[in-house]
Design a protein that fits this description.
globular; five-stranded mixed sheet; 2 domains; binds zinc ion; about 210 residues; alpha+beta; 7 strands
Length: about 210
């Protein structure tokens, strides 16, 4: 009864399709049972619901429109330099194993008469990472979306991340880091500009991993 009410609430908020929450709860129960544990034992009774809530929160990108995120935060501004935003930490889910990967992103662009409000960049990274992803596509989606919003002279994106599907299973390589980069426009042909961008980006990555 409690679960039914919760399911209706979740489905009724306009973000999670009606009934989806209940499907995820039932599926989590089935997985726990299939693995060999008992979803009915005392401390696991609420686990399927906790799992469903966590999944819909972690994967909230499916219920968001990135154009709404940037709405009202694009400004006309002449600026001939580079805008760079570092230390954009994110958490995502590998679409091959449904396990987390997480890390840090740096983004730079060269404006062409328009700039974007600073607070929108972390929200865009969060939006595109809050889906089932591969790091390659995540990197490109962030870069291409900024291109489509600002029509800048160039965009650069760097992502450095740690994949639990490589650390916990399969190869079991705990120290493997994956780096992906996307360059467009003036970044693509300018080796010096790329080098400055990557040097800066990698400096903040080291800082991030020192913290954890
Ligand atoms: Zn994986």
């Amino acid at each position: 009864m409690d679960r039914k009410r919760k399911s209706d609430d979740k489905g009724g908020d306009g973000r999670i399709p009606y009934g989806s929450y209940e499907v995820v709860v039932r599926s989590a129960e089935a997985i726990i049972r299939a693995i060999g544990d008992d979803p009915g034992r005392e401390s696991m009774k609420k686990t399927p619901e906790r799992f469903a809530s966590a999944m819909f929160e972690i994967l909230s990108g499916y219920s968001e429109n990135p154009w709404e995120i940037v709405n009202g935060a694009i400004f006309e501004q002449e600026y001939s330099g580079v805008v760079m935003v570092n230390n954009l930490k994110f958490f995502s889910m590998c679409e091959h194993h449904l396990l987390p990967f997480f890390g840090v992103c740096s983004l730079a662009y060269i404006p062409n008469g328009k700039i974007i409000g600073l607070s929108k960049i972390p929200r865009l990274v969060k939006h595109f990472s809050s889906r089932f992803q591969v790091q390659e596509r995540l990197t490109e989606q962030i870069g291409k979306f900024v291109e489509s919003v600002l029509s800048p002279k160039g965009v650069a994106v760097y992502i450095n991340s740690y994949h639990l599907c490589v650390a916990m299973r399969g190869a079991r390589k705990e120290d493997v880091i994956m780096e992906t980069m996307y360059f467009s426009g003036e970044f693509r042909g300018d080796v010096e500009l790329k080098r400055i961008f990557l040097d800066k980006a990698k400096t903040t990555v080291n800082h991030f991993f020192d913290i954890i």
